[in-house]
Amino acid sequence: MESFKKVSSIVTPLDKVNVDTDQIVPKQFLKLIQKSGFGKFLFFDWRYDENKNKRPDFVLNNPLYVNSKILVAGDNFGCGSSREHAVWALLDYGFSVIIAPSFADIFFSNCFKNGILPISLDEKTVEKLQQETSPIEVDLETQTITTPSDKILFKIDSHKKKILLEGLDDIAQTLQYEDKITEFEKNSKISSILIND
Amino acid sequence: MNIVEKILARSSGKSKVSPDDVVFAKVDKVMMHDVSGPGVIKVFDKLKKQGISVDKLWDSKKVWVAEDHFVPSAEKISAENIAKLSKFTKQYGIDKHFKYGMGQYGICHTISHEEAMVMPGDVYVGGDSHTNTTGALGAFACGLGHTDIAYVLLNGKIWFKVPETFYFKLNGKLPDHVMAKDFILKIIGDIGTDGGAYRTMQFGGSGIDEMSVQSRLTLCNMTTEAGAKNGIIEPDQKVVDYLTRRGATNVNLIKGDDDAEYEKIFEYEGSEMEPIVAKPFSPENISIVREAPSVELDKCYIGSCTGAKYEDLEAAARILKGRKVKIRTEILPAAISIYQRAMENGLLKIFLDAGVTVGPPTCGACCGAHMGVLAKDEICISTTNRNFPGRMGHVESQTYLSSPLVAAASAVTGKITDPRDLK
Predict the structure, then answer these.
(1) Residue of B nearest to A18 (CA)
(2) Which of residues 80-139 of B touch A (CB under 8 A)?
(3) How close A134 gets to chain B, by Cα (Å)?
(4) Taking CB atoms and an 8 Å limit, are B193 and A109 in contact across chains?
(5) Could you check whether B3-268 and B276-421 share the same CATH topology?
(6) Of B61, B62, B69, B378, which sees the most CB atoms within 10 A?
């Protein structure tokens, strides 16, 4: 996984709530499992009509947003099916930051496994960001979003921050400590540990 | 501690846990299917390339695999995914692989209880969002993404933040014309599709005590649609009997303490419940059936982990007996064992006599994959769990979610119909 530091781009405003993973990547593409290449299926039914022509009114088809890396959406983003393909599609398309008032649990968790930063902010701030037309900067290190007129701080769990900053993969990260884990389990009557948040 | 806190405390070797604690829990069972499985295999391939050993699973006896989303394979990519799964389970010595065309198989969440794969008190994770279903047996059951499942397969553990619990208390039995599906749609309508976000939704009260295990499974199944981490019901003798009949031995009961704490308690009176539909395009967009819009339906679909358990088919048969369907109707029992019971008890004859097509167990059109997906502008009444745009087919099709009783009654009239209003 690539490490995540700073992202600067204009935002793509997606003014919809409860965007479910089937809208993000429709079921017909679930059979494919290569992690790359899913970008072309992102929001497929919103981007294309039946004849595979681009729908001009959909935001991703507006040339203005072609190079955008930051998606700003409504409440409960990523609900529905647990498919990790949804995150693969967003990443492959070019989004590395998703901002919304709230996220569905499994989707939120899947983001961190693949190097996407999901940021949850209050509704008013999200609405304001959706109207922002100049590029903004998202700095994970300082947990700051900088717009031409504002500095917005965001919260993130320190462990998850580290994972993104160092580009660590959950599994790889844990397996680095395999010897220590085995040793610990041998010596401990309670074979589990509590991680303090 | 409540039941979830107790399960998470036990599985993480703690004497006590509280909401918001982060625990590293030992997993008792893990499930993947023909969509999450190939995803997991992909993660394994990536790890291998990084030089990480994936030669051995933590415990292949605790892993089971279902073929459900894209069986029977309609084209070659699905067929290849199924073949990949078989190769994987053979390589890692996973015996519990329920294969299409080889006796018992079915939708993963249905297999979880039909085959007694999960026990009360278990921590059970699956590569599917409706893994919540099996919480009805008294397990901590929740869905994970592919990467997390891969992690569990290698390590046998996963971290959880102990969720807060919403307790839904049902006072008194539901009336005969009301099913668990109506009750859970009512709840989702009340709290919204993110109303249970990262919470446990626990069900209890005399109405739940009276309820069959299969109805309880419907409740927990749809906690996913309220955004919940998991759904759970304290197991009782009915659960013990249910699992014992399906071959389980030594089923232990686990309950919360008398002084267990809940973030919020919601109370419902059983006698006040009504048949409910969720209108397009959200499970929270509910209406009482008798006040539902008078739309011309094109199709009725009785299937899925939510609405094709034996009890669901029995409810549909009650309505369809001696009647004919007016719209295209498909019934897909959720597992072969259910299909077989439906045959032995004469339900299949009732369905076929009514004009229904009975299909094989599959997730099929519930997720719009195949086996009866909807065309543009078609309107379907369905016993499934989601009605987001395009969920069951064309993005401009519409789905109304309902109980099997309402779906069957609507199949007879061609309009959304309260079972009490059938002539």
Answers:
(1) B193
(2) 81, 127-129
(3) 32
(4) no
(5) yes
(6) B69
Cβ density class B361-398: b for 16+ within 10 Å, e for less: bbbbbbbbbbbbbbeeebbbbbbbbbbbbbbbbbbebb
Taking an 8 Å cut-off on Cβ atoms, the answer to whether B24 and A194 are in contact is yes
Q: Is A26 helix (H, G, I), strand (E, B) or coil?
A: coil
A195–B23 C-beta distance less than 8 A:
yes
ipTM given for this complex: 0.77
Interface test with B, best of A76, A81, A123 (most B CBs within 10 A): A81
The Cα of A127 is separated from the nearest Cα of chain B by a number of Å equal to 19
pLDDT in tens, B82-112: 999 999 999 999 999 999 999 999 999 999 9
Shortest CA gap B373–chain A (Å):
11
B154 in contact with A, Cβ within 8 Å: yes
Q: Tell me: the pLDDT tens digits for B194-246?
A: 999 989 999 999 999 999 999 999 999 999 999 999 999 999 999 999 999 99
Chain A within 8 Å of B396 (Cβ-Cβ)?
A: no
Domain ranges of chain B: 3-268, 276-421
Range B3-268 has CATH code 3.30.499.10: yes
Domain residue ranges of chain A, discontinuous segments joined by +: 6-169
If you ran DSSP here, which 8-state letter would residue A70 be given? Answer: E
Residue A194, pLDDT above cutoff 70: no
Q: What is the mean pLDDT of residues B252-277?
A: 97
Instruction: Give, in words, the CATH class of B276-421.
Output: alpha beta
Considering the domain A6-169 in this protein, what is its CATH number? 3.20.19.10
Relative to beta strand B357-358, strand B328-331 is: parallel
Q: Do B148 and A22 touch (CB under 8 A)?
A: no
Q: If pLDDT is split at 50, 70 and 90, which confidence band does A187 have?
A: low
Take residue A3 and report the two structure tokens written for it.
């490490």
Please choose, from the candidates B221, B210, B205, the residue with its C-alpha nearest in 3D space to the C-alpha of residue B176: B210
Find the CB nearest B151 among A22, A81, A170. A170
Respond yes or no on whether the N-terminal peptide bond of residue B72 is cis (omega within 30° of 0): yes
For residues B3, A160, B146, B397, the Cα torsion angle rounded to the nearest 10 degrees is 90
Mutate to test the interface with B, among A29, A51, A106, A158 (most CBs of B within 10 A): A106
Q: Does B221 touch chain A (CB under 8 A)?
A: no
Residue contact A105–B198, C-beta within 8 A: yes
Contact B408, B319 (CB under 8 A): yes
